[in-house]
């Protein structure tokens, strides 16, 4: 079976959030698919939920193959479009926007794999909730399973004591 990006989108959008969480993909709140974001493009899936006085929005960029810097930059454009939309409407609530990339493989061969952890260290844990997450999927006989990727470092680090 040739598994396509639209198949991945179909599964994630139609599954209930608790089932996705059991399969390794934490999604919270309400999901919207194929969200048109003005001149910024069309996001595969966007979720949102209110926690306290803050609306948390997550842009999900799906790839049938590898996720890396190009997928991140694409999703970053969507996140910026959502941010600009809300700012121009002078919304009366606080919001935070995050990005989750999902694909068959994760780019460990470029410096992209360090981005998540570096961003967390720069902005701190309090601001970090869901800012950037990377998941790979496996689709097989037992359905779909997701794996979170983070905490990468250069295996050739040369530190002297």
Description:
The radius of gyration is 16 Å and the shape is globular. Strands 1-2-3-5-7-8 form a six-stranded mixed beta sheet. The longest helix has 20 residues, at 69-88. It has helices at 5-14, 17-22, 69-88, 115-123, 125-128; strands at residues 30-36, 42-51, 54-62, 66-67, 94-103, 105-106, 132-140, 143-149. Helix content is 30%, strand content 35%. With 161 residues, the chain is α/β, with parallel strands linked by helices. It has five helices and eight strands; from the N terminus they run ααββββαββααββ. The chain has one domain (5-149).
Silhouette:
globular
Provide the number of structural domains.
1
**Share in β-strands:** 25-35%
The count of β-strands is 8
Low-confidence stretches: none
Instruction: Work out the helix count.
Output: 5
Average residue-wise pLDDT: 89
Quaternary structure classification: single chain
| Residue share in helix | 25-40%
Distance between the termini: 53 Å
Instruction: Outline the biggest β-sheet.
Output: 6 strands, mixed
Rounded to an integer, what's the Rg over CA atoms?
Answer: 16 Å
In N-to-C order, the SSE pattern is HHEEEEHEEHHEE
Strands of the widest sheet, in order across it, are 1-2-3-5-7-8
Class based on secondary structure composition and strand pairing: alpha/beta
Features:
161 residues, alpha/beta, six-stranded mixed β-sheet, 5 helices, globular
Strands, helices and their partners?
Elements: H1 5-14, H2 17-22, E1 30-36, E2 42-51, E3 54-62, E4 66-67, H3 69-88, E5 94-103, E6 105-106, H4 115-123, H5 125-128, E7 132-140, E8 143-149
Parallel strand pairs: 3-5, 4-6, 5-7
Antiparallel strand pairs: 1-2, 2-3, 7-8
């Amino acid at each position: 079976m040739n598994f396509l990006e639209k198949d991945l989108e179909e599964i994630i959008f139609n599954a209930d959030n608790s089932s996705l969480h059991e399969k390794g993909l934490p999604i919270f709140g309400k999901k919207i698919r194929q969200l048109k974001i003005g001149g910024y493009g069309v996001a595969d899936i966007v979720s949102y939920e209110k926690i306290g006085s803050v609306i948390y929005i997550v842009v999900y960029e799906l790839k049938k193959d590898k996720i890396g810097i190009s997928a991140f930059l694409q999703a970053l454009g969507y996140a910026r479009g959502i941010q600009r939309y809300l700012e121009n409407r002078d919304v009366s609530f606080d919001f935070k926007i995050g990005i989750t990339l999902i694909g068959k493989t994760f780019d460990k061969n470029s410096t992209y794999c360090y981005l998540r952890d570096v961003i967390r260290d720069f902005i701190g844990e309090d601001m970090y909730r869901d800012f950037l997450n990377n998941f790979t999927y496996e689709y097989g006989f037992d359905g779909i399973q997701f794996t979170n990727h983070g905490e990468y470092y250069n295996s050739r680090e040369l530190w002297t004591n």
